[in-house]
From TrEMBL:
This is Essential MCU regulator, mitochondrial. The keyword Lipid metabolism does not apply. The chain crosses the membrane at residues 12-31. InterPro entries: MCU_reg (IPR018782). One of its GO terms (cellular component) is uniplex complex. Keywords: Calcium, Calcium transport, Ion transport, Membrane, Mitochondrion, Mitochondrion inner membrane, Transit peptide, Transmembrane, Transmembrane helix, Transport. It comes from the Eukaryota. Pfam families: DDDD (PF10161). Component of the uniplex complex. Interacts (via the transmembrane region) with MCU (via the first transmembrane region); the interaction is direct. Belongs to the SMDT1/EMRE family. Essential regulatory subunit of the mitochondrial calcium uniporter complex (uniplex), a complex that mediates calcium uptake into mitochondria.
Length: 49
């Protein structure tokens, strides 16, 4: 039988520590990009009554 693979003690926390800031950064960049497009009348959401 093979020996058990070595596990990282804080693997989940490390993954969350990398993923969450970049998800937030991506959301921020998307929000600013959408505002820029709307400001230059490239993409404007029309409200339906």
């Amino acid at each position: 039988m093979r020996a058990r693979p070595k596990t990282d003690r804080y693997g989940v926390w490390k993954a969350l520590g990398i993923a969450l800031p970049f998800i937030g950064l991506g959301g921020y960049i998307s929000m600013k990009g959408a505002a820029l497009l709307e400001e230059h009348d490239i993409f404007v959401i029309e409200e339906e009554d």
